[in-house]
Fold these 2 entries.
Entry 1:
Amino acid sequence: MSDNAKIKIGNKEFDFPIKKGSVGPSVIDVSKLYFKTDHFTLDPGFTSTGSCESSITYIDGDKGQCYYRGYPMDTLAEKSNFLEIAYLLWYGELPTKIEWDEFSNAIKNHTMVHEQIRVFFNGFRRGAHPMAIMVACVAALSAFYPDSINIKDPEQRRISARRMVAKIPTLAAMAFKYSLGQPFVYPDNTLDYSENFMQMCFAVPAEKYKINKVFAKALDKIFILHADHEQNASTSTVRLAASSGANPFASISTGFTSLWGPSHGGANEAALNMLKEIGDVKNIPQYIKKAKDKTDPFKLMGFGHRVYKNYDPRAKVMQRTCHDVLNEIGNTDNKLLQVAKELEKIALNDEYFIEKKLYPNIDFYSGITLSAMGFPTAMFTVIFGLARTVGWLAHWKEMMIGNKMKIGRPRQLYTGPNPREFKELSKR
Ligand code: CMC
């Protein structure tokens, strides 16, 4: 089999190398296309375009499987814990006992944020969306920790990454507390990562807070399921922002910006709102009809995925986690879960959804689960971003240490006016 692809333009033929990955589809390396042919490729939405080489996450969209550094993500969700996944994504291997002790202690010892950040919060309206606060506060970390923004220094890169893994949950919990008008709760470094986050979100000074172990375990799984997903919109945004040499905190904040949109991380919030709007199984047919109507912008939120053309493996784990949480609160006949299950059943048997290979994605069940644990919808995307931070950081590091780091600079097909002459206002 040839290792080259041929492109014919007019009567000239050009060869381009085909590169094979360790698994998954090969790519045609068109980086010399413009140099050789004076043409660019056009691929809005990057439906056929790879933007980088990466050895972090592999998604088999047809089989509905996802692997972090070669390990099936659903196995990791059952058997590992989120901090271990953070280590795996960053270093490429699971930690030994000594490595684990060093890493987990380091994260636990960086959970506090600079006291001045508390003052910073006062500038926000109480009703501000916590994602708006996250975008601002994560970028603002570069103002507080200027000693770890030199991207060329591996040690500073390591410190800034650990600072973000440790401090972003603290910022997220502060955003939540601020919206409630409750005092911020300081981190407790004796607790596990997820337990600490729950305590910072739900404890109040007036009462002793008892951590629900089932909820903490479920939350840890939710973090693992969201930890990475190869070159999605927010990860690609982080890579593009960082490709200019922007500092790590500023670069990761762009991940939050991109994640916020309803087609991406904002879908969990949108999915729960949709289930509430549907309200009752009897209303489902009318919403299925709307979703199929090309003149109606309505989409079934929590359905469909650019890469998965099979059931999203994250949705399967999420569905089980949802049951664990609802069992724990004794709410097994949860109305929203009934609507979700029935909606899923009807959609999976509907010709439109079958033909377009639209299956439930991770966001379909995550909203019901988080809501049952006591999180308001506005916090769902924040929790997604908190978890995805470890993936963004791994991609950022991969780009920094690679020898092919180049500023991202896509080209375009220009369709505007041809060059023309400027006329003074009086002559127009
Ligand atoms: N409901 C109804 N129709 C849909 C849906 C849906 N949820 N998703 C896609 N379609 C249709 C779409 O209208 C299009 O139809 P046609 O070919 O007739 O024009 C076809 O299916 C292909 O969809 P697309 O929008 O071209 O596919 P995409 O790969 O560009 O978009 C998506 C993927 C996830 C943005 C989209 O499926 C969607 O908007 N889903 C709802 C939002 C959502 O749940 N997002 C979370 C994604 S998973 C979490 C994450 O990674 O952030």
Entry 2:
Amino acid sequence: MIKAAVMGYGTIGSGVVEVLSRNRETIAKRAGDVIEVKYVLDLRDFKDDPIQKKIVHDYRMIADDPEIAIVVETMGGVEPAYTFVKAMLTAGKHVTTSNKALVAEKGAELIALARQKKVNFMFEASVGGGIPIIRPLNACLTGDVMEEITGIVNGTTNYMMTEMTEKGVDFDEVLKDAQNRGYAEKDPTADIEGYDAGRKIAILTSLVCGKQTDFEDVYTEGISHITAADIRYAKEMGRAIKLLATSRRVKTSYAVMVAPFLLPKTHPLYSVNGVFNAIFVRGNVSGDVMFYGSGAGKLPTAGAVVSDIVEMAKHIDKNIRVEWSPEKLALADYTCFKNRFFVRAKADKANAVEAFGGITAVEAEGIDGEIGFITEKMTEAEFEKRAALLPGIIQKIRVAD
Ligand code: HSE
């Protein structure tokens, strides 16, 4: 029997306990041994719940118990999760986490510590919830040099964009709805301003380039400026607006950005709706590979954590090499990205032509007193230069091919 501990009995942590119990036998067969949760660390008590007999309040009880081989961290946030995880790895325990903030900031250091202690630090659930993406990148696509990773990696904003498209409602209304459904946090900033997606694409970029990608360096635009009028134009163009996180290889580095894009119906991510996530990967030998599924939610995310537990049980005396050094990756300048741009402006068409050259006009029913148009393909830098020549721009959204 392999003894495990879960730190944080919230949505994901309780999901992990549930999955380990519900699928106990099949998990035992795959892991080669039964996985038994001995401790659950939480600040709270859970009176009248059978879990109470496993509750501990001091992480050192877990770190100091030689019987514990695997620890799950589902607390969220960098501290105290970092201190606790470091103590577990130092004590020679395997650790899996669903915590993207911890992985994005401390991933390289914790991977190095795990290697030194001949254990594993795994984080399948930190990106894409229930979608397998970390292990495929670390195990199945290692023959490739990655040319591009582009994904819808935030379920909350994808739900909001889908609702705005289907119901024609405005941003504030759909945000309230997402909060009522428990998709958006009370403070929704991390989701709606794209920071959550920025952390996730930074983690994926670190994994494919083997160096530390700081999420603070990622150019990030959220969806809070997207309006019902933009959606009307998008429909007129037969397109959908999606918040994409994208990382593209530029020589020996990557250019990384998070921003809303207008996708055509032929785009592989066009039909990813609601809280679903999808990640598209392009390798230089495998070509295009797509991953689709539940990007969040109790059981899908817990399933990803449990897959790490099984992997660690299968390699209980062995560190599985992960290439992610603390050396910082100097990101390529995102302004080299080339796109067409959809622009709305309180301006004359003649002025728009003067500023941008060839443009394609777009009209949307019921929207007057402004012009809408799509530019030719140009770099971000060139767009900014040309946009400065046209006063009255009220919106710009990148247009994907
Ligand atoms: N807030 C995140 C999302 C949760 O909406 O995708 C999963 O990381």
